[in-house]
Amino acid sequence: MNVFRFYAPGDVRLEDAPEPQVGPGEVKLRVRACSMCGTDVKISTAGHQRIVPPRIMGHEIAGEVVEVGEGVDGWVPGDRVQVIAAIPCGTCDFCTAGAMTICPNQVSMGYDFEGGFAPYTIVPKEVLAVDGLNRIPENVSFAEASVAEPFACAINAQEIVDVHEGDDVVVVGSGPIGCLHVRLARARGAKRVVLVELSRSRLDLASAVVNPDLAVCSAEEDPIEAVKAFFDGKGATVVITAAASGAAQEQGLLMLAPQGRISFFGGLPKDKPTITLDSNLVHYKELTIVGANGSSPAHNRQALAYIADGSVPVADLITHRLPLDQIVEGIEIVRSGAGIKVTVEP
């Protein structure tokens, strides 16, 4: 079978590999959809400290059970499933306290285990141990289910920053995760949602799909002034920075109304992780700054439920569906921002 493997920064290969065999405590899947994100682009060009090559990439996985290993109960061939990407240990103090997203022993599909850019993959026992193999609702396609993993990360962030009824929300960054944040904020009761993006073409592409109440191109106007003017001079109650940008974090703080909350959702580059922050602004306006790191197995189930009941549609966010032999083209689409979500169907 053909697989897409990482060997070294800049060295990724579509090559032949033997079909994997299921072991005790494992489940073998026929991968039906594995979506891409910006992390896949970063890995292909710069690698990742946790990946020991060669490694089959892809962590947003949905597929069909084809075989179960010895000792596995509850799953049979033909079951339609979605796989968590970030796998907590389930036993440490953080996990047992309900904080699985910050598990210090976390491992991941496509990093520590073979990923989904292949016709077949193995769900390791570590996933099953934390209830991380999720049944796909009947009315949800494999492609939609593959979007549940990044969507789960958005759910975690909005739970932490507490987006709720009546909030005025700003989402900075109009990639797929930014689009998910816009729709999720509305599903959680936000009154108005503004989308801010540096690239005019990306903003127009996203806005045509998710229809924010206001779309602001920060390359063409001052986003802080635009946001404050739209929110009656007060600013936003919530800002979510869905971009790996220090400038977005700095500007986001200035967009907040008194007692506003900001989620630093997008992590910053490892070589440029600091920003300039006026702590008096936080002090006198009683602002709240929170982070968000990944998702838990429960968040993945919540994501599938939101998709199934129509609260947060995702099918129209998938602008490109590609066979595995066009995966390099898919990486370039993600890199260039020419699409919203790219899904590989091996």
Task: Report on this structure.
The protein is built from 12 helices and 18 strands. With 346 residues, the protein is of the alpha/beta class. The protein has 2 domains: 2-147 and 314-344, Medium-chain alcohol dehydrogenases, catalytic domain (Quinone Oxidoreductase, Chain A, domain 1); 154-291, 3-Layer(aba) Sandwich (Rossmann fold). Strands 3, 5, 6, 9, 10, 17 and 18 form a 7-stranded mixed sheet that branches. Helix 6 links the parallel strand 11 (168-172) and strand 12 (192-197). Helix 5 (148-161) crosses helix 6, helix 5 (148-161) crosses helix 11 (297-308) and helix 6 runs parallel beside helix 7. The chain is globular. The mean pLDDT is 97.
| Rg (CA only) | 20 Å
CATH homology superfamily of the largest domain: Medium-chain alcohol dehydrogenases, catalytic domain
Percent of residues in helices = 25-40%
Structural class: alpha/beta
Shape: globular
Strand content is 25-35%
Oligomer: single chain
Number of helices: 12
Total strands: 18
Please give the largest β-sheet: 7 strands, mixed
Order of helices and strands: EEEHEEEEHEEHEHHEHEHEHEHEHEHEHE
Highest CATH level, the class of the largest domain: Alpha Beta
Could you report the average pLDDT, rounded to the nearest whole number?
97
Number of domains: 2
Low-confidence stretches: none
What is the CATH T-level topology of the largest domain? Quinone Oxidoreductase, Chain A, domain 1
N→C terminal distance: 10 Å
GO molecular function: oxidoreductase activity; zinc ion binding
Protein name: Alcohol dehydrogenase
Domain Enoyl reductase (ER): 10-344
InterPro entries: ADH-like_C, ADH-like_N, ADH_Zn_CS, ER, GroES-like_sf, NAD(P)-bd_dom_sf, Zn_alcohol_dh
